[in-house]
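Progress note, project year one: complex with beta-D-fructofuranose.
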Amino acid sequence: MASILLGVACLSASAAAQQADVRPAFHFAPARNWTNDPNGLVYYDGEYHLFFQYNPYGDRWGHMSWGHAVSRDLVTWQELPVAIPETPDVMAFSGSAVVDWTNSSGFGRDGHPPMIAIYTGHNPKAQRQSQYLAYSNDHGRTWTVHGEVLNINMAEFRDPKVFWHAASKRWVMVVVKALENQAQIYTSPDLKHWTFASDFGPAGGRGKNWECPDLFELSVEGGAPGEKRWVMVINLGDNGVAGGSGAQYFVGDFDGTRFTPVADWGKAPRWVDHGADFYAVASWNDLPRQQDRRVWIAWANDWRYANTIPTYPSRGLMTLPRQVFLRKTDQGYQLAQQPVEEITRYRGAPTRMKAVSLSSNPTPIAIDGARSDLQVDLETGSAQQIIFALTDDKGYQTLVGVNPQVDEVFVDRTRSGPHFNDSFEDRHVTAVDLKHHKVTLRILADQSILEVFVNDGTHTISDRFFPGGGNLRWSVATQGGTATMNLTAWPLLTATAKAPAG
Ligand code: FRU
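Model obtained:
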């Protein structure tokens, strides 16, 4: 009896020692436990679905299952029970979901289209990965596993992205042979029978694993009238632009069978985001036609330290959903991203600062920095650097800097919080032409994540930071010389969970 009581006392003491951290308010994280990649992004009947790699039993990677959340505005999420659990032999790895509008699969019921998930079944005993199909007839709440639909007898063959290709009237799957750094395209009339169509890669950035491919079409801003191109996205588990996990893209054409990059695409990797915490990015299927936009979301993490980030009781976070744009400039095709416009509905009363002269004496920005949305127009003037600092009560700082001397914008988290991993403390840079002495920044901060959008989202830097505690306050200063700033800063008002209708 005494030993039982002692055991209970120890348990509660250790539980009390591990304090829950302040959660980001506008970024999805499960209530507890581990998450990695976003999965099964699909819109159906007023709801945006976000499934995610989830460990129901702990806050490190393992027991991979599909967690589930829904939202009506891409900002406020309601977490639902696990959608696709692991089975004794097969973990449910990453994949995608579609609405099978024509019931090509035959899994529909009562005249309603089924929701179909195609994901990787990972069998650790057999050391094999193959693609599985599961379906739902109740808005993604419960799922029936139909079973394996594509098996090429390979250990590292995963992350199917499936979509309907209207021109060829077929389903298309892009999936990776991870270790070969190769994507494969398959096609199907019914989501159950898949035929090999083509290979893509190796190309661009290489690493140990290619993971989580995506493929979609976008209109080209600044292109020929009516021009559209296809974007192939390949995530890389390591060797990304910031040293660890990262996402790269290719622009080209897709004929229903083969993806071909535009002629002058070149060999150098082009990165989607220049921070360390933007991985496994994937876009939504089936957004209503009248929205006419492509929206994607990433896991705000990096495999180098993902299992050790100091958060409790959940570990892992998604970025804000972002709208993706394709622009044609003097430098060729370029992706751009903006936070989805829905986030602006959560803005409180703005603080405006007009034509403020910046010097080495820090200028405070008078809003709550912990949940803030800053829109900044900078004239870099004679400044050698302009630094926005987000400072906590312990003196830890995360910096967003503009450096006209070397044409770059950066995030510096070398002193952003207590040390927990050697590869975390670093500076992440994107090259921005500052010769005209002008730059615009949109900076979104949410407790432990910064997302920086430079020049209308032409460049982005996404980084987490884990401050020491207390309030977070913004200030801005120059190093050497002066600069001029116009700024609008909004506090972001807390997103509260709303129950989805129906
Ligand atoms: C990417 C990834 C995927 C895999 C999943 C497993 O982060 O490694 O390739 O399907 O995570 O959780």
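Confidence is low (pLDDT under 50) at residues 1-16, 497-502.
The two ends are 50 Å apart (CA to CA).
No further modelling is planned for this target in the current period.
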